[in-house]
Specification:
Blueprint lengths: L6 E5 L3 H13 L3 E5 L2 H11 L3 E4 L8 H9 L6 E5 L4 H9 L4 E4 L4 H19 L7 E4 L2 E4 L4 E4 L2 E3 L3 H12 L5 E2 H9 L6 H15 L10 E4 L3 E4 L10
Parallel strand pairs: 1-2, 1-3, 3-4, 4-5
Antiparallel strand pairs: 6-7, 7-8, 8-9, 10-12, 11-12
Helix pairs in contact: 2-3, 6-8
The chain binds calcium ion.
């Protein structure tokens, strides 16, 4: 095939949701591939190497989590879970297995398309090797990776090394929920559950220093009980 459209594999067993997503993707310029079972999803993943997988968890043959495990053994292709399961534990489990994002049903089409764009950008970034360079911007916040400095409205925010590392890590995965465990592992290199407390203390300081107040723009969103997400310009609505 000679077109250069992004290929998106949709693994979903409910026919009406499946065709809805397929139409939504195709009318927005993506190529959609559809699998109705976990096994078929794994097969199509291998044969078509899609750029993104949108995955339902409740599948007739196996739990969709099995597909995340199978894909993660060989590839970093972004996986977006789309599920009716809404508990924190379900989200944490999927994210910790390597899913990049989690949307609960029912979902809005605008939200889904924004998250698809964010996930595909993630794919581009992760295929480029090496450390992040240049800058990251969200609203009036800028991170300069080379100088390891963060600015809000042009003013430098004085962060400790650890605080900076957390902010930079979240920005490298902007738009994506990072679980507490994933952040702790990236920053401190350990998997001790108690370290979540350290993270929360650092995050409270970061929020204070970056001037997030109730009702103001927050750059880092708390996905309660799950993790944190740096806002992404394309995914999150602009302030009025
Ligand atoms: Ca299902």
């Amino acid at each position: 095939m000679s077109n250069n459209k992004y290929k998106i594999l949709v693994v979903e067993d409910e026919a009406n949701i499946c065709s809805f997503i397929e139409t939504l993707l195709e009318t927005n310029g993506y190529q959609a591939l559809v699998a109705n079972t976990c096994a078929m999803g794994v097969t199509l993943f291998s044969s078509h190497t899609p750029d993104l997988v949108i995955l339902d968890l409740g599948l007739p043959d196996q739990d969709g989590l099995e597909l995340i495990k199978a894909v993660r053994q060989r590839s970093r292709t972004p996986i977006m879970v789309l599920s009716a399961r809404t508990t924190e534990q379900d989200k944490i489990e999927a994210l910790d297995l390597g899913a990049n994002d989690y949307i609960t049903k029912p979902f809005g089409t605008g939200e889904m398309l924004a998250r698809v764009r964010a996930a595909l950008r993630l794919n581009r970034y992760s295929s480029a090797s090496g450390l992040p360079s240049g800058t990251f911007t969200a609203q009036d916040m800028t991170i300069n990776y080379e100088r390891r400095k963060v600015f809000v409205a042009g003013q430098e925010v004085k962060l400790t090394q650890t605080e900076y590392n957390i902010v930079a890590f979240l920005s490298e995965h902007a738009g994506r929920v990072m679980t507490y465990a994933a952040i702790v592992k990236a920053i401190w290199g350990d998997t001790d559950v108690g370290s979540t407390k350290k993270l929360q203390v650092n995050m409270a300081n970061i929020r204070k220093k970056m001037g997030s107040r109730p009702g103001s723009n927050n750059y880092i969103l708390n996905e309660l009980g799950v993790g944190y997400r740096m806002i992404d310009e394309d995914t999150d609505a602009q302030p009025n």
